[in-house]
Amino acid sequence: MAQHDEPRPLSEPLVGAPPAGGATELELDGVERTLKARAPQPYRHDEWRPAGETFKNIPETKERRELIRRAALAMAGDLPRDRPPAKQTLAALGRKLLAPLGYDDTYLGFAMVMLNNEYWREEFAAVPFEKRLFSMPHCLKQAENCTAKLDEVQLHCNNCGLCSLADFDQIGNRLGYNVLIAEGTPIVLKLIATGEVEAILGVACLNVLEKAFDKVLQIGIPALAIPLLRDTCHNTEVDEDWVMQALGIQKTGARRTRSFVPLLRDVVHDFDPKPLDALVPADRGSLPRGDKVAETERISLAWMRKGGKRFRPFLTQAAWQALTDEDAVPEPVKRVAAAMEFFHKASLIHDDIEDDDDFRYGTETLHKSHSVPVALNIGDYLLGRGYRVVAEQGGEIGPEKAAKILGKLSEAHVKLAEGQGAELLWRKGRDKSIQPLDTLRLYALKTAPAFDVALYAGVVLGGGDGPRDAALSAFCKHLGVAYQIQNDLKDLEPDPKNKVQACGDILHGRPTLLFALALESADEAQREVLLRAAAEDPEALGAEPLQARLETLKELYYRHEVPVQAEMLAEKQRARAMEAVAGIEHAGLQALFTFLTATLLE
Questions:
Q1: Among 220, 235, 352, 495, which lies 20 to 30 A Cα-Cα from 294?
Q2: Which run of H or of E encompasses 490?
Q3: Are residues 168 and 292 in the same domain?
Q4: How far apart are CA 334 and CA 345, in angstroms?
Q5: What integer pLDDT is reported at residue 562 of this predicted model?
Q6: 387: how many CB neighbours lie within 10 A of its CB?
Q7: How far apart are the C-alpha atoms of 94 and 303, rounded to whole Å?
Q8: Residue where a domain terminates, one of 248, 281, 313
Q9: DSSP letter assigned to residue 361
Q10: By C-alpha distance, which of 337, 335, 349, 340 is closest to 302?
């Protein structure tokens, strides 16, 4: 295997990112430019994509496709195995592969897929069938005669035998695959995070492979992709022998590429009852059940075990792992990471009280089930316990590191209160108009500090703080804003696993980017409707008026293409996050940044 002295680039290329430069606290200049542009910026000349031309052509003949695949097999052996290959790396090798064959960049996308396949093939083959996902698109079906049923997630093939989709479905199920006939990645990411899936075989057109399957590749699990021969979205075709070959391959003992996926799963299980009891032992566990002093701790720890993605403690452990290149996370690092979740859970309790939300994690909020005074006290208890957990690690991690983390926690606590306070004062005021820039400022204060302190704690524990601190804070700021915009978009539809009501944020008086963008685009009459929706108490109007207002809000949002504008702003923030840390020349951290933007921003 070839040796490489220089670390290869690991971050995804930035789309329309602004020039690097000094960052103000909220990067408002960049946000303003984004709001004014409202359109994707052109790719820079140094990005991997060919400028002004297509790069997604499929070679016309099977002979040419096989030629490129064989060349990819010969070349993939030179790829280092420490981290998954980045797009820039694949693009450079793809051009090197195509040149002697006489092909130009129009086949670059296909060549990159072939190279990526050969990189992962042995690792994919080492994963048991029952831990693999086989994903196929709807367009492989015979559209005219297909009687398969489609639900909100996937197509359910009835195995009629009229098309290759039915054949693949039967073979995949017979081998033990998790078979999914659907588009998109959210469900795939969930299956990866829960450990149900450890490798993926995907059939899709090159457009989908770039936009959707690409995120799976960034996460760093074994994945093979078989491109469709045309992207007509109707009665498409694929090299069926390639699919059959990939379905059946098996091999043991392949060397594994480092990935953060196992850690993500482990962190989730840290908050199961027994692991959490080991990390944060109960102070009052010896007292009889029902004791009023012990009850506060019992309710608090039960709340800690409730759902959630555990991204904040994951950030701490992953940053430590990226800097130390160690697999086993020591107990003191896990305890500091747990403290990040204590703070997060406390903030959710207080948010739910201030917002008077009914549901969290699909069940009653704490103040609905135990009363507002009890919930307030539980939130305060969790904050105190979180500070204490960090302070108690001073003997293990050193007093200087403990002091740094406690200082950053207090700073984050203050910023969170400032952001929440600004939102509460807006809700209390009579004037409900708000600019998109103002909502982004609130997001930067309310969401980003929790990510910032969690990442910072891991970097301090790994010994990598100091010159990187400002860049890491900027990364978390833009990541947090993008994350909150994503939550706004999710609020457009009801979520049975969380708050269950669509448009609940603005109907309960919370400012959102969607609302601000709609106000900016609306005419005078529409502005009155929007402002009334934010000002009136939905509980006082009854179910029918509330439902009518909800539908009116959604109609105005979609009429003015607010979701599209919000998605563009989220993508801009993602790009700025990666731009902020572009100068950090550490392969492990760069891999973590790429992983975070792929998983946190679904």
A1: 352
A2: helix 469-490
A3: no
A4: 17
A5: 93
A6: 18
A7: 50
A8: 248
A9: T
A10: 349
Q: Of 64-68, 87-91, 116-120, which range is least confident?
A: 87-91
Write down the pLDDT at residue 276.
94
Q: Does residue 219 sit in the same domain as residue 275?
A: no
Strands 359-360 and 363-364: antiparallel
The tokens describing 41, both together, are: 């910026």
Residue 472 lies in a domain: yes
pLDDT tops 50 at residue 178: yes
Q: Which amino acid is at 235?
A: N
**340: three-class secondary structure by DSSP:** helix
Total count of domains within the chain: 2
Find the mean pLDDT for residues 227-250: 85
Q: Do residues 274 and 318 share a domain?
A: yes
Query: pLDDT tens, 297-354?
Result: 999 999 999 888 899 999 999 999 999 989 899 999 999 999 999 999 999 999 999 8
Q: Residue 467 domain-assigned? A: yes
What average pLDDT does the segment 559-580 reach?
Answer: 93
Report which residue type is found at 293: V
Query: Is a pLDDT exceeding 80 seen at residue 373?
Result: yes
Tell me: do 318 and 339 sit in the same domain: yes
In a domain, 39, yes or no: no
Q: Are 170 and 136 in contact (CB under 8 A)?
A: no
Based on the fold, state whether residues 244 and 315 are members of the same structural domain: no
Identity at 157, one-letter amino acid code: C
Instruction: Classify residue 567: in a domain, yes or no.
Output: yes
Separation between Cα atoms, residue 505 and residue 183, nearest integer Å = 28
Q: By residue range, what is the domain housing residue 194?
A: 48-248
CATH number, position 544: 1.10.600.10
- Amino acid at position 84, single letter: P
Q: Kindly state the tokens that stand for 420.
A: 């929440």
Would you place residue 12 in the very low, low, confident or very high pLDDT band (cuts 50, 70, 90)? very low
Per-residue pLDDT averaged across 373-388, rounded? 96
pLDDT above 50 (res 150) = yes
**Nearest to 338, CA basis, from 412, 260, 419, 392:** 392
Whether residues 229 and 308 share a domain: the answer is no
- The pLDDT of residue 189 is 72
Give yes or no: residues 244 and 265 share one domain: no
**Alpha carbons 292 and 298: distance in angstroms, whole number:** 10
Which stretch of DSSP H or E encloses residue 242? helix 240-248
**One-letter amino acid of 217:** L
In 3D space, the residue among 194, 170, 189, 187 whose CA is nearest the CA of residue 247 turns out to be: 170
Specify whether 190 is located in the same domain as 281.
no
Q: Which amino acid is at 156?
A: H
Strand pairing partners for 136? 181
Quote the radius of gyration of the chain (alpha carbons, Å).
25
Q: For residues 442-449, give the mean pLDDT.
A: 92
Which of 77, 79, 108, 85 is CA-nearest to residue 95? 108
pLDDT at residue number 232: 65
- Quote the mean pLDDT of the chain: 82
Q: How many CB atoms lie within 10 A of CB 88?
A: 17
Write down which residue in 222, 248, 274 finishes a domain: 248
- CA atoms within a 13 Å half-sphere pointing along the CA-CB vector of 393: 27
- With tokens 């984004």, the residue in question is 34
